[in-house]
Amino acid sequence: MILDSETKAVELPDDHGTELRLGLRLLTCTTLIEGEVRSRLREKFDVTLPRFDLMAQLDKVPDGMTLSDLSKRMMVSNGNVTG
User: Are residues 62 and 30 located together in one domain of the fold?
Assistant: First the structure.
């Protein structure tokens, strides 16, 4: 059986249905919250979520950090930080 976000959880065996429904609900909530945060950052501060993340990471280390450390903290490649 192929499962994706469109598949109804009731088609699963009883021991997995609840977990899948909860996981999908959490994913939906996370997506909605992230969308709202993105919108508010753009509207109120004219900044994107990735830029805000960059500023938040830099604020945590007042003495600065290497680009490599920054990319690790942001969970992106080095090229994403320098590009």
Answer: no
